[in-house]
Specification:
By secondary structure, the protein is an alpha/beta fold. It is built from eleven helices and 15 strands. The strands form three sheets. Strands 7-6-8-9-10-14-15 form a seven-stranded mixed beta sheet. Strands 2-1-3-4-5 form a five-stranded parallel beta sheet, sandwiched between helices. The radius of gyration is 20 Å and the shape is globular.
Length: 352
């Protein structure tokens, strides 16, 4: 039975598999957003209740679970960070019935699918920004790509080849199955010796294992690394010693030197305690998605997908706990910052 006083949200995040490394922090961040939204009156005057769907299950299982929830008529929206192979099934299951806000950037997988808002970061553009900065700072312009074999990276690799202009060049692409434990095929390949650095397009635990192997091979001291999917959980999983010369572009990695980020982390610690998972990059994406959902529906006055699109087609500016943002189409407009890994944490260097 539908509770008219409750606004139910499905939050799809991986709790197992290679992407499971981000799951605990994403769940905890959703808890903070839920608490803050309800303290401010909920969504459309209704109390928010968030249910986590494990995005680490098989794509078919997740699609069936989302469909079953939607069939009850109780679900008002879907959020989360579903992996690319999972996302297609989730979008198909939702089918425009409720708004779906994913805390990841638009990778072109769905075009202008109604009701789907890819409000996170743009990994392709951010990677190019990072490479251009690394060229200016270090003269690095020859790159090797090390990627996991999944939908997103299969799109990203040719996109990077198209997007990169002189002086940049990609000297080699190395693609490994998800869950790979041995990266010698890349680390011992002579082509890697001709690269100034590595673009890391690996997922979660795979990236942590690669970073350790890269460091053990002695390359970390002489070759740079960058990548658009690294977060604090990855740095911790790889170990502080595995993160030298690792530069990461992001619009959302928290910087404790900035007052809004510092205060948000303090609220998170008060709610979950000092031993809670790191309030990481992807945790911020989940937090931001939920607050964006609340602000969007408040501005429109409805959760109806067509009414939302009518309102935002000309651009929408709104403010919430994660800051003030402009939504154009399905994308939040946010400045890019360059971070350097410092042990198991990030240090912000500049805004691009």
């Amino acid at each position: 039975m539908v509770d008219p006083d409750t606004f139910e949200i499905l939050n799809v995040v991986p709790l197992r598999g290679s992407g499971g490394i981000i799951g605990p922090s994403c769940e905890a961040a959703a808890g903070l957003a839920e608490t803050e939204i309800n303290s401010a009156g909920g969504v459309l005057g209704r109390e928010v209740r968030i249910t986590t769907v494990d995005g680490g299950n098989s794509p078919g299982e997740i699609a069936r679970e989302v469909s079953a929830f939607l069939a009850t008529g109780m679900i008002g929206a879907v959020t989360g960070i579903p992996m690319p192979d999972v996302r297609a099934g989730v979008v198909h299951a939702v089918d425009g019935r409720v708004p779906a806000l994913f805390g990841i950037g638009d990778d072109g997988q769905f075009g202008s699918r109604r009701g789907v808002f890819m409000i996170g970061e743009n990994p392709g553009a951010q990677t190019v920004d990072a490479l251009n900065w690394l060229y200016r700072e270090f003269g690095a312009h020859r790159w090797a790509v090390v990627a996991s074999d999944y939908i997103w990276s299969r799109r990203m690799i040719p996109a990077l080849h198209r997007m990169l202009d002189r002086p940049h060049t990609i000297v080699a692409d190395f693609v490994f199955p998800q869950g790979c434990a041995n990266y010698d095929a890349a680390l011992t390949d002579p082509r890697l010796d001709h690269a100034d650095g590595v673009i890391v397009l690996l997922v979660g635990g795979d990236a942590a294992r690669f970073n350790r192997a890269f460091t053990d091979s002695g390359r970390a001291g002489r070759q740079l690394r960058t990548g658009p999917t690294a977060d604090e959980n990855l740095l911790a999983a790889g170990g502080p010693a595995a993160n030298d010369n690792f530069y990461v572009p992001s619009s959302v990695i928290p910087d404790p030197r900035l007052r809004p980020d510092r205060e948000r982390i303090a609220r998170y610690r008060r709610l979950h305690g000092s031993f809670a998972p790191s309030f990481s990059r992807f945790a911020t994406c989940i937090y931001q998605s939920l607050h964006t959902l609340r602000a969007m529906l408040a501005a429109v006055g409805s959760s109806d997908v067509e009414r939302i699109h009518t309102r935002i087609d000309t651009g929408m500016v709104f403010e919430h706990n994660a800051g003030e943002f402009t939504l154009r189409g399905d994308q939040l407009q946010q400045p890019v910052r360059i971070f350097r890994a410092n042990g198991a944490e990030f240090e912000m260097l500049l805004r691009v």
